[in-house]
Amino acid sequence: MGFILYFITRRVLQGFFIVFIVTFFIFMIMRIVPGDPVRLMVGGAAPDIVLEKVARQLGLKDPLLVQFGRYLRDILHGHFGHSFIRPKSGGSVGGEAWDDPRMHPRAEVLDLIIERIPLTLMLAGMAMTWALVLSIPLGIVAGIKEGSWIDKVATFFCATSISVPNFWLGIVLMLFVSLKLGLLPAIGYRGFSYVILPSFVISLELAPILLRTVRASMIDVLQMNFVKVARARGLSRATILFKHCIRNSLVPVLNVLGVQIGILLGGVIVVEFVFDYPGLGLLTIFAVLQRDFPLIQGIVILFSSVFVFINIVVDLLCSYVDPRLEF
Amino acid sequence: MKVKTRHRKGEPVKGVTRRSFVKTSLKVGAGLAAYPMLAKNFRFFRGTAHAVVPDDTVVFLSAENITGNWDPSSHTTLAQINIEGFVFNYLIRCPMRPENPEEIVYELATSQKIVDPNIIEYTLQKGVRFHDGKEFGADDVKATFEYASDVNKAAGAWYPGGCEVEIVDKHTCRVHTKKWGYPATQFWFRTAFLPIMSANDIKDPRVLAQRLNGTGAFRFVKQDKDDTVMAANEDYFRGAPKIKHLHFVYVPDSTTRLISLQSGESDVIERLETEQVDVVEKDKNLKLNSAISVENKYLWFRCSKEPFKDWRVRRAAAHAIDRSAIWQILGKSGHPSYTHISPVKFGYTKVPGYPEYDPVACKRFLSEAGFPGGKGLPQLEYITSVGFYPKTKEYGEVITAMLQEAGFPVKLSVMETAAWNQKLYDRPGGGPGHMIDCGWCTASPEPDFILRMHFHSSSKRICGVVDAEIDASLDIERNATSIKERRVILQQETLPLLAERVPSLSLFTSVFIHAIDKNLNNYYLYPNGMMDLEKATKA
Fold first, then answer.
1. Is A103's CB within 8 Å of B69's CB?
2. CB-based contact A39 B205, cutoff 8 Å
3. CB contact under 8 A, A39 and B422
4. Each residue's pLDDT tens digit, A88-126
5. How confident is the model at residue B36 (pLDDT cuts 50, 70, 90)?
6. How much is the pLDDT for B82?
7. B425 interfacial to chain A (CB closer than 8 Å)
8. Is B432 exposed, middle or buried (CB count within 10 Å of its CB: 0-12, 13-18, 19+)?
9. Is the ipTM reported for this complex over the cut 0.85?
């Protein structure tokens, strides 16, 4: 128990530090890049004096470190700020008169994120499921039958799917599966069937790396002494494979899975935009286009926290699969 | 990472181990993740395999988002104006067909009449009710006109000044403009752009901002994120529409919009790109609606700073540009332009001598302005955008090359829409850069929505031009006391003067292309993108 507490405490503290660094950088970058959010809020024709006034109201004229300190303090109080652009209805809006006292109250960043998390989680979870279903059986067989036609097919699949851009593949699959065959809906979200196609597109980015890792790991394990000894002990081929080899080959796969979360989150952003899927990815694209600083910061903090958390879980899973490991 | 033996086989393990901890955590985690999905959003696991829009429903995919403030006088956003077109009625509507841009169709008015140079009289429809049940009458017209023409409002810029409305009887009213110094003819076409609001709502503008309440064929139901949900007005005074449900959805990506239409998940999409037109033409389930729009695309010169303060430099630049090359790039998305207004605007005419590609004239004007062959010109910046208008980058590069060939030291800055929008308007001392690309689109044949707004020194939104002769000409055409007189002044004086001084160069007139499900019929698409579904059917 003491080990677990020590492990978790250490990793959580490391995680906080990583999230802090990410928060700092994203906060600074957003304020350095071209594009003034206040201009977007007040409208192109508003005089500069109005721009100045609104920027002061929002605290955007304070020194950057002061702004960052204030932001951190708010986060520690559980307040991620209000979207610069989105009203409480959550829709994407723009061009509202800056000085209209009836201007809709802006939405809480946390509310906007929480509202969309289930959809993105479902998309990411489904994508990971697709990736595992595609890569693990094919990787294992390719590893066992190294150099065979299956191995060559697996290598071809990896090379092809990793080279194809996901936005292009998304459009092609929409044209073929939705338009030509009429099997699945193309855009938006009105039920689970809307998740299948975009998740498959994301999974084709994840699967090649997983497949190659499983294959390489399997080849390594099959050449280890304990496998040769197991044969000498008279264990059946199936027992050796399923009870010993597969389990031992999974540790590198789990480690790769942790890294894959980054690719998964990137894929979610692009694919959600292509499929007009109303999750966090689409929200992120709009937030960037509209220079919605608080929303971008909130999403990035969430993504980095998810990344850190998943990697802690992966480490724990690795130690579960291989009890000899200690981190 | 290091490898270490933690326990021997057969040795009992006491307390919590990593393995038992992970096992328990996985079970608890899975339970926690599954519960809210199953309990709160059972719809996750439902959904049709292929969601085709039902026959009594129309889904319109918009390329632009809305403002979130439903007061029609609070904004100038095209997508929201399109929504208002479904929910509100107007006193008149103008179909704005190129063959007859002055055509008027009466809606809430049954007639309009100039009774005095400063008075226009409207007689109104009887038996019309707002969606909240209030009976429509002259009090609503009075409230709407006086409220919307307040020049301090965002949309107040569309009006030449305030006005006062006299209620003659319940269904007759007169708009007075004398106090504000402009003639009543200014309302002849402008009313086609003014949705009639309820006087009760205007008494409390907070209510106006929260929801739409008109007399139109569709009533506002709710805003569901990017989906504006509307339903048929069963008590509509011209008969209940056959389309019972209407969704106006913001989908920013043009490819996504097209695929949605092709897969039957939407019925109408707007702002097709040139390449998509061919795809739609080949699809037997779709049809195209292609119409010359009210929008001209301009190359705006920053007239309030050097070197474009001098109209001769602007003329030289205009003569350096071969617009036929731009029209080729645009293909079906552009229509040749020969004046500063679209062919569907009141007063349109092909202006003789509109600046055409003429290298000799270009050289002459540059020399007269003191920059022979372009020598002495400062480094110039030409700003354009990508992502909203079609082919801006492509023809921007062509214009840059042409100007460089004529001796203008031009650098093209291509920006995404948000950054471009930030640099669009004139500021004290001149707007950013020296030239900027932008279109202007308004839902009325009224030419002053462009001419006065952009070229009169009291407004000069983008180009920042201050020219006493242009001001005088715009004042004369505005003050014309009859439609006929105004048309003559526009065609013979104002538009030719603008062609001579070129505060902006009209590059082309946009062609608005909509792709529509072939089963949708009996609709009308206005040249500003508004759609009339009053009589529409789907079969």
1. yes
2. no
3. yes
4. 766 666 655 556 666 667 788 998 898 888 899 899 999
5. low
6. 92
7. yes
8. middle
9. no
CA B10 – CA B171 distance, rounded (Å): 97
- B172-176 and B119-124 as β-strands: parallel, antiparallel, unpaired? antiparallel
B-facing residues of A in 150-179 (CB < 8 A) are: 171, 174-175, 178-179
3-class SS of residue B442? coil
d(C-alpha B436, C-alpha B455), whole Å: 15
Q: Say whether residue A187 is in contact with chain B using an 8 A CB cutoff.
A: yes
Nearest-Cα distance to chain B for A232, in Å, is 22
Average pLDDT of chain A, as a whole number: 83
Residue B84: half-sphere exposure toward Cβ, Cα within 13 Å: 27
Nearest to B6 among A95, A104, A324 (CB): A324
Give A293's contacts (C-beta < 8 A, 6+ positions apart): A30, A31, A37, A84
Question: Tokens at residue A199, please?
Answer: 């998740």
Asked whether the beta carbons of residue B416 and residue A289 sit closer than 8 angstroms, the reply is yes
* B 183-242 residues with CB < 8 A to A: 205-206, 208-209, 223-226
Check: CB of residue B467 under 8 Å from CB of residue B500: no
CA atoms of A24 and A21, how far apart (whole Å): 5
Determine the longest span between alpha carbons in chain A, in angstroms.
Answer: 86
Direct distance between the N- and C-terminal alpha carbons of chain B, in angstroms, rounded to an integer: 67
Tell me, what amino acid is at B230?
A: M
pLDDT at A44: 62
Per-residue model confidence as pLDDT tens digits over B400-452:
999 999 999 999 998 877 678 778 888 877 888 999 999 988 778 889 989 99
pTM above 0.90, yes or no: no
Q: HEC profile for B42-111?
A: HHHHCCCCCCCCCCCEEEEEECCCECCCCCHHHCCCHHHHHHHHHHCCCCEECCCECCECCCCEECCEEE
- State how far the alpha carbon of B480 is from the alpha carbons of A124, A315, B83, B141, B444, in Å: 65, 81, 33, 24, 19
| Least Cα separation, residue B385 to chain A (angstroms) | 13
Among A93, A175, A179, beta carbon nearest to B66: A93
Amino acid identity for residue A2 in this structure: G
> What is the interface size between A and B, counted as CB pairs within 8 Å?
192
> Measured between CB atoms, does B142 come within 8 Å of chain A?
no
Interface of B with A in 467-496 (CB under 8 A): none
How far apart are the C-alpha atoms of B288 and B267, rounded to whole Å? 12
pLDDT tens digit sequence for B321-364: 999 999 999 988 899 999 999 999 999 999 998 999 999 999 99
